C-alpha cells in the first residue's frame, strides 16, 4: 500500500492483528529484510513494515535525512491513527526510532533499536572509511547521509521517556562503547549485546531477531 505523508509517498505492508508494531530497515535496504520476523510476529501483532523514503517502492525524493525520515514516520503513525505502537528499527531505522522518541515522547509505547549510532563517529573506523570512500566515488545521497549524520546529543537522549531496548552485535560496525553510551543516557533502557553476531547477521532474513525481541514486546 502507499500513503502520502510529509510530502512523500511511502510504501508499506500491513498484516496480522493485535498490538501494533512498526518495522523500519537500514540504509539501502527495504522492508523485505524482515520477512522472517514478520512471519513470526503476524499471529499476535499488527505489523507495519515500511520502506523509508528513497528506498524500495517508496518515493525517491531529492532530499533525505534522518530528521526527514523521523518526521515521515511521525506523520505515518498519526495519519493511520496507530495507537501507541511498538517501534523496531535496524541501523538507520534505529536512528529514526531514537529521533521519533526524542521529538514525540508520547507517540510510541516502546522502542527497540539495533545497531544505531548518534553520529558518524559511532561507526568503527573501517566502516566510516568505507562509507566516505563510497560517497566520494558515487556521490550517492544515502552514503552522504551516513557520513554527515546523525547529530544526536546525549542531552537529546535524556528526553526519551518510554521503555527502550538497545541491541547490537558483538561484532557490530557500531562501536560497543558507543552503543553503551546510548543505553547509559536513556533513563528507562535495557542493553543487550548479541554474542558472535555482526551488524545485521541476527536480523536480515533471520528468525533470531524474533527470539531476541519477544521478551521485550
Short structural description:
With 217 residues, the chain is an alpha/beta fold. It has eight helices and eight strands, in the order βββαβαβαβαααβαβα.
Chart the SSEs and their pairings.
Elements: E1 2-5, E2 8-15, E3 19-24, H1 35-41, E4 45-51, H2 66-79, E5 86-90, H3 92-103, E6 110-114, H4 125-138, H5 141-148, H6 154-157, E7 164-169, H7 176-184, E8 189-194, H8 208-213
Parallel strand pairs: 3-4, 3-5, 5-6, 6-7, 7-8
Antiparallel strand pairs: 1-2, 2-4
Q: How big a fraction of the residues is strand?
A: 15-25%
| CATH architecture designation | 3-Layer(aba) Sandwich
CATH class reads: Alpha Beta
Could you say how many structural domains there are in total?
Answer: 1
Report the uncertain regions.
none
First-last Cα distance: 25 Å
CATH topology: Rossmann fold
Helices and strands, in order, run as: EEEHEHEHEHHHEHEH
Mean pLDDT: 97
The CATH superfamily appears as Alpha/Beta hydrolase fold, catalytic domain
Give the % helix.
Answer: 25-40%
Q: How many strand elements?
A: 8
Radius of gyration: 16 Å
Shape: globular
Q: Numbering strands along the chain, what is their spatial order in the largest sheet?
A: 1-2-4-3-5-6-7-8
Specify the structural class.
Answer: alpha/beta
The major sheet is characterized as: 8 strands, mixed
Count of discrete alpha- or pi-helical segments spanning 4 or more residues: 8
Structure description:
The protein has 217 residues and is of the alpha/beta class. The chain has a single domain, classed as Alpha/Beta hydrolase fold, catalytic domain (Rossmann fold). Helices cover 34% and strands 22% of the residues. It has eight helices and eight strands; from the N terminus they run E-E-E-H-E-H-E-H-E-H-H-H-E-H-E-H. It has helices spanning 35-41, 66-79, 92-103, 125-138, 141-148, 154-157, 176-184, 208-213, and strands at 2-5, 8-15, 19-24, 45-51, 86-90, 110-114, 164-169, 189-194. An eight-stranded mixed sheet has the order 1-2-4-3-5-6-7-8. Helix 2 (66-79) packs across helix 3 (92-103) and helix 4 packs antiparallel against helix 5. The chain is globular and about 45 Å long.
